[in-house]
Design a protein that fits this description.
Helix content is 40%, strand content 9%. The protein has 136 residues and is mainly alpha-helical. A three-stranded parallel sheet has the order 1-2-3. The two termini are 15 Å apart.
Length: 136
Amino acid sequence: MAFGKGCHLHLIDGSAFIFRAYHALPPLTRKSDGLPVGAVAGFCNLLWSELTTTRSQEAPTHLAVIFDAGSVTFRNDIYPEYKANRPELPEDLRPQFIFTREATRAFNVPCIEIDGYEADDIIATLSRRAREAGGR
């Protein structure tokens, strides 16, 4: 389906979903090797909810999950101290990021990340393009 008038684009900030799930659920680990998986489980629950909940006019016709690439962005060039005071990523969360991307693809949902840009930048650009194409 081509995107245009009557279409509704829903873009999910994947990193926000991961952190939300991580902080909402108790620590969970895979029994076979102790790998932390709580954020992945919560992320999948949130994504499933988005995929199965219809809200009449609010239901998306197009959906994608946008992730931070985790690299330095143009913002760091503008302001070297950008996010300098942000706390370190919890060690038990770090290995879960790759699995949330794999889960997104397993749900057959586009998984988008671009080096040098944060999810917010990509979401803003895609939202503007959707609006310009006649969608919302």
